[in-house]
Amino acid sequence: MRQSFLRFVRTLHITRVLVRYRLDEVLYFLPLLKPYQAVLRLNPMTWLAPRPQGSFAERLREALETLGPTFIKLGQMLSTRRDLLPDYITQELAKLQDAVPPFPSNVARQIIEAALGKTLDGIFSRFDDQPAAAASIAQVHFGQLLDGREVAIKVRRPGLQWIIDQDLAILALLADLAERYSQEGRRLRVRAVVAEYAKIIRGELDLLREAANASQLRRNFAAEPELLYVPEIYWDYCASPVLVMERIYGIPIGQREALHDAGIDFDQLSRRAAEIFFRQVFRDAYFHADMHPGNIFIDPKNGRFIAVDFGIMGSLDDASQHYLAENMVAFFRRDYRRVAEAHVEAGWVPADTNVQDFETAIRAIAEPVFEKPLNEISVASLLLRLFQTTRAFHMQTQPQLLLLQKTLVNVEGIARDFNPALNIWEVATPLLTEWLSRQRGPQGWWSELKRYFPQWGLVLPEMPVLLHNILRQTQQGELPLVIRSNDIQGIRQELHSGLQKLTYSVGGTFIVVGLGIIAALEHRLDSPILHLPVWAWLIILPTALWAGTRWVRNIFVRRD
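Structure tokens predicted for 2-polyprenylphenol 6-hydroxylase:
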């Protein structure tokens, strides 16, 4: 009950913000909410409130910033989805600022002490009350441990959990309505996108998970410290609302003049950005998915990248990783047939898609691009145009690729910013070719053998007995065929429910008809019906109803 009330209050607040910025019309594509539009127009506040200035895109950005962290993060994610939204909206959403006023340092102290079970004096020899940075999810203070190590202390904002829970519940409801009433909503798999987004933002709230993400990425690049450095996590001082990590010293990647003064090689910097991205995606299948300039620093001593803020990490399953590599390699070989086939094999487009028509459409978008020099080809733009074209072939949104697309846009932007002439494909090709050869060749087979050998060692001793039992049952005609499926179980449940309703309806009809007969003859209860007295019918009708119900249930409803 309390959750429902909180959700209702939050919904009213969201509605008020949408009305204030004249954005409530974005909800009226749902037939269910059409009456709501009329109600709002009858509200005098709608007439008296001053009309907000700016274009629709500007008002949308301002509304998202007003609504808080859930919607700011959602807008930032949508800013990379130019396959879904017009350019004028995505360009405005890219300006979303995640910087908010800091909360008081005494509140931060209380959160740290409550989470770690110690006083600050028992943990830090120095704690800077002035935050170094403040965002919608957390803020960062600098300090020093008792052993002298310099640290950065990240503290989650108080009171966020319930707001984000209500926002996510409301977004899930809107996604459900969108898929129910909109064919485009079903194609875009809005519910899956919202579910993926909910997983991401809940992960950001748990700073222990962020610490684990950082540790994993640090291990992945432990052998390549010249490419990417990840600060060390101090686990003894971490909890869900608090993260303590090594303090890093670097130049923000957006400060070009400072990087130039430090003697950083811009060409090497751009190549490293592309190489780091492709190594994360195709070697580790685990990548930093929030690589905007605010989270990237450059070590002035050796020019290596330093990453911070590991709340959003992306991962790819084996199938997505394989087909992504197949698509990219086939694109740059101009093997459009293979691109079309890979989309069908991956299940990204329906299985009945006409591959020849799909190939023709892909060729139409790719050939003009490849007439340019390779160093002018944007991989992110090429993939974007592909996604826009595949809408005509009912390509479903792949939530696991959303973060990848966003990260690729950020990384390619960073790389091209420092070297506009960079041929990003020249960096990617060796890594992709090496990865594909490892997956397909003897090295891939050997890796799979080592991966599954422990399981085979457990199963192989049982195989002779199991095989003997199957052959014996087959010979004797005793081999049972058992089919279990969630879909079949769902059909059975729906059938059972439908038959129950049918039974009750028929039974109710019998009763109503019986009562009608009795009512019609109440003044002649001694008159026979079909040569039987009324009292006999009062016994026959319920008995027949009971017997018929039992028969229907026994014939059509089988229980395990």
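The first strand starts at residue 124 and ends at 127.
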